[in-house]
Amino acid sequence: MDDAFWTPLRPLPEDLVWPRPVDPAGVEGPTMGQARGPGWRRANTGRYVPADTVRTLEQTLLETACRLKEGEAMTGWAALRWRGAAYFDGRAADGEPRPVSLIRWSGTRNVAGSGVFHHRCQLAPYDTELVSCLRCTSTARAVFDEMRFAPSLRQAVVALDMTAAAELISVRQLAEYADRRNAWTGVPQVREAVGLASDTSRSPQESRLRLVWLLDAGLAEPLCNVPVFDLRGNLLGVPDLLDPAVGLVVEYDGWHHKARRQHRRDVAREHRFREHGLEYAAVVGGDLRDRGLVVARLLAAHRRARLTPPNARAWTLTPPPWWQTPEPLDVRLRRERPLPSRAA
């Protein structure tokens, strides 16, 4: 994936409008008469925003969760998006809007609003925190809830991959979190998804392609986004998926690859890989809807790669001295953002 289009973490918009309660003086919020007029719209029970406030995804989350109190929190995809995880767009696989998940301990009040789904389950104090003034579950709890209630194993894997892409949690950290919750609903799916997840996937479609590779084509687990060099130490590219045993590169080409400049880069990259003894295959937007097509393409490319003579291999994964290998995500997050403990 081209780095210019890889934006897994984005800051909150600066133009969010905090919903205001009715103010008889009309200073801190609308008067009752103004609230009933065309200049304001109801955002939540007893709270209003100016009628011209744009309903972006983040604004919708703010309006939904602005009244949450102790014992209540936003969780799942909504909490992850509020933390900046850009690939959580609030849409289901069919494109329909997903409800905002709010979690509350039994006995707390209902939070009114359409497009909201309430979970009644345990919510410990160490698993909640204020994030930009909204009460959210911790990152670990948010992605844990997203995975255990996901409608499929593959969607659970994508959720963890994209949280790791945003550098909010590592696969190993989530595994440790799930290991402490044996009897919870959906834990078997979470644990199976952890075994298929990756810290280095760069997009949801790339993750889905990797799952077709593993679950449908039955190929060995690939490396994701590792740099490949020629024998002189020059960078050949950073392929989406790589099978180093046979020398197979597979790329997912999304919509932006149709642009002329990007297409020229793609052709040049494919030429470099092939020139140095790597077999190459590409999957384009829309192909993933036909898993049989993708499986056939992967298996055919894998067969061709196995026929490449060993002496034709002119590439290596060993970086040259000038290359700066980034610190693994798990190592860095354990130092910078350790998971909350029960004693916190």
What does this molecule look like?
The protein is α+β, with helices and mostly antiparallel strands and 344 residues long. The protein folds into two domains: 56-199, no CATH class; 205-316, 3-Layer(aba) Sandwich (Endonuclease, Chain A), CATH 3.40.960. 33% of the residues lie in helices and 17% in strands. It has helices at residues 32-36, 57-65, 76-82, 139-148, 153-165, 171-179, 187-194, 204-216, 260-275, 291-306, 329-336, and strands at 20-21, 40-44, 47-50, 72-74, 100-104, 116-120, 128-131, 134-137, 223-224, 228-230, 235-237, 241-243, 248-253, 279-284, 315-316. The strands form five sheets. It has a four-stranded mixed beta sheet with strand order 9-12-13-14, with helices on both faces. It has a three-stranded antiparallel beta sheet with strand order 1-3-2. Helix 6 runs antiparallel to helix 7. The radius of gyration is 23 Å and the shape is elongated.
